[in-house]
Amino acid sequence: MPNSAIPKVSSTASPTSHKHTKSSKKPAAPDVITPAKIAWQTDDAGNQAPVSGEFGDVYFSHADGLAESRHVFLAHNNLPERLANLADKQCFTIAELGFGTGLNFLATWQLWRELREQQPHLANARLHFITTEKYPIPLADLTQILSLWAQRAPDLAELIDELLANYPPLIAGCHRLNFIADNITLDIWLGDAGASLASLATFDNLNNGSAIKRPYIDAWFLDGFAPSCNESLWAESIFAQMQRLSRAGTTAATYSCAGIVKRGLQAHGFSIKKVKGFGRKREMLTAVMAGSADSLPDSLAQNDDNNICVSPHPHDHIPSHTVVIGAGVAGLLTAWTLANRGMTVTIVDKVAPLAGASGNPRALLAPNMTPIHHVYEHLHSIGYLYSGKLYRYFNQQAALQQMPLILEQTGTLDLLIKTNIGTAQIADYPDEMATTITAEEARQLSGLNIQDLTDNLYLPKSGLINPQALKTLILKHPNITYQQLSVTNIQEKADKVTVTGDKKSGGASDNNSQTPATICADNVVICAAYESHQLDNRIVKCRTIRGQLSWFTPTTEQIARLPKLPLKYSGYCAPFIGQHGDAEINYINEGQPQFLLGASFVDADASIDIREEENQQNYDKLLEDIPELSSVLPDDTSAWQARAGVRTQTIDYHPLVGRLAQSRRIWTLSAMGAKGYALAPICAEVLADMMLGCFAPLSAVMLARLSPNRARLHKAQKATI
Ligand SMILES: Cc1cc2nc3c(=O)[nH]c(=O)nc-3n(C[C@H](O)[C@H](O)[C@H](O)COP(=O)(O)OP(=O)(O)OC[C@H]3O[C@@H](n4cnc5c(N)ncnc54)[C@H](O)[C@@H]3O)c2cc1C
Ligand SMILES: C[S@@+](CC[C@H](N)C(=O)[O-])C[C@H]1O[C@@H](n2cnc3c(N)ncnc32)[C@H](O)[C@@H]1O
């Protein structure tokens, strides 16, 4: 929280950095992030406070920024009482203008933690904190700033560590951070606040009597620098967005009583009140959106074409039981995400979990990069960043249960043989996400000796997913039940949905007999990949692209000369060690080294027989791109192991995520293409947000692109019939 009134005694900043003017640096393109330049001010009492180089104002009060944050934003949005009174599974949403050092967020998180410890009924309630930041503070500066708070307020230390450990790379777009143990979600939208708020999807133009509604912000933290040094956070367009995103009873608080703030709030539906400011400050402002909560329209619903999401009213029925059809990575992540939000989930598969494309021995988590100015709407990059965080969280859970790791973070070296990005564009990325290493470093990491490695893309946080370990961990969730069921019919009624199918019955001797079975639920999510359209013809029929992975057990001599980490070329290869559980779905022994090569592409083919010629293709692709491995690989591939699966792809390459047209209870998450392990976690978050009426971590434009009802797909399908 800025405090321009504090005398500037001394500063370690450059002479220009605390002038009340914007940085003289050439403005970056709006979708490329300019990190904050931090300077320090010391007051008479020796307190140090960070100062924004862009705006020349302090981020928070030297004297006691934490107490001020609690006074202005927490107390004057009445958060202690409102949060304590949340109903079971209810989500409370806060939006902040200006994330800065994260101090307001930390204070809110700490309050939420305390309330949850004291009030068992909050076990399934959720806090969603959405914040915006145009000039994010680099991690090194943030670490320095927050370490001061860890000393001054030791009760924040643990939260600070967690925030820093999850702080995103400074690239544009929404970064979702889930602090799962505390049921708190932090969405950091990097970019201009006006654009970020405009990206938040809410929909209110359909009235089909749905039991669920659009999302709203419950409380606003208006924490821009003083309007005198930064007008952008107090602009008309910001107040207009606040009005769009608020409902009767939504509150706002700010330290500023400037006329522009008072007028802006009043002109956009808020009643304002001046109250006593913090400490020696005479006044601050609180506001509430006028009107009564009861006067809100009852049945706001969804525009099917554009993936309109709808949110629960405090008194609305929140769905409690969902059936997920298909236990591949899409279904498993959907089940886990809903279960993690307190829902009961029954997941079914006609064969078994991971029976489809998801059951490969390992999946590579490494993005196809895009130039950085596209990254904020590049689903694959967004999915890569989010899924990496989730898989690392799963790793912690797996370690506690002495299970194999879900993500083996090996790093990946891309030889840039088949890519749409060069080293100049890679250099635009933060190194922690993507970088080019020296040829010598590449040589040492990979073990390759002859290949020209000058141009490369190194992804330090990428690695190999162990699908079997992921499945085992997810199915242990207490809210998830798995059963084998081949679904044949889905019936939607006003108050429920009924899923019917055939269940295998009898013992081993009676393998083929089936008995009918039925499950009733509030919602169903179809995650049946290329078979999804058979369950509901509102889902388009997708392209089927067969692929076969190959692997073999290398000798000790071969291991010494094979690549030491995953490599991407026109295919990909990776060494790995068989883990406990692998043998359940693939021919792999625990503890045995393996070398994997992927993968063939056969369009319009949905068969999964093993083909010797496709092993040969995987072999040829590797040797064509990296000829030095010809002396290492066995030239006879006939003894190789292999697994074939079907990639499901839409004509525009985007997955299908959302509710089906004219339906209230039938959803889909499918068409994951060749990147299901990167896409499923973020898509499952989006789907859960839509089902529960929360703000999604993707822009409204992107949600429209993912809608299963998007006109483009359906027009194309009609044209082919
Ligand atoms: C060779 C190959 C290599 C790949 N490599 C990678 C990689 O390295 N990284 C990566 O991220 N992605 C990779 N992919 C892509 C990835 O595997 C897919 O995107 C992902 O598995 C799709 O997951 P899914 O859950 O949608 O489909 P699936 O895993 O196919 O799951 C669909 C499930 O639905 C079930 N089902 C269907 N109909 C019914 C019904 N009527 N009733 C009940 N159940 C039903 C099926 O039995 C199946 O288990 C690869 C794919 C292939 C083929
Ligand atoms: C007073 S500081 C916020 C302090 C912060 N809430 C905290 O807890 O540390 C104001 C923040 O707004 C950011 N900001 C300024 N203009 C912005 C804009 N147009 N869009 C988004 N953020 C902006 C600044 O970079 C700065 O971090």
Chain-wise SSE layout:
Elements: E1 10-11, E2 38-42, E3 48-52, H1 65-74, H2 79-84, E4 91-97, H3 103-118, E5 126-133, H4 139-152, H5 157-166, E6 173-179, E7 184-190, H6 193-199, E8 217-222, H7 236-245, E9 246-254, H8 259-267, E10 270-276, E11 283-289, E12 321-325, H9 329-340, E13 344-349, E14 363-365, H10 379-400, E15 407-408, E16 412-414, H11 423-426, H12 439-446, E17 457-459, E18 463-465, H13 467-475, E19 480-484, E20 486-492, E21 497-504, E22 514-521, E23 523-526, H14 532-535, E24 543-552, H15 556-561, E25 567-568, E26 572-577, H16 582-585, E27 593-598, E28 602-603, H17 612-625, E29 641-649, E30 656-659, E31 666-670, H18 676-692, H19 700-706, H20 711-720
Parallel strand pairs: 4-5, 4-8, 5-7, 8-9, 12-13, 12-23, 13-19, 16-25, 23-31
Antiparallel strand pairs: 1-2, 2-3, 6-7, 9-11, 10-11, 14-18, 15-18, 16-17, 20-21, 21-22, 24-27, 24-28, 24-29, 25-26, 26-27, 30-31
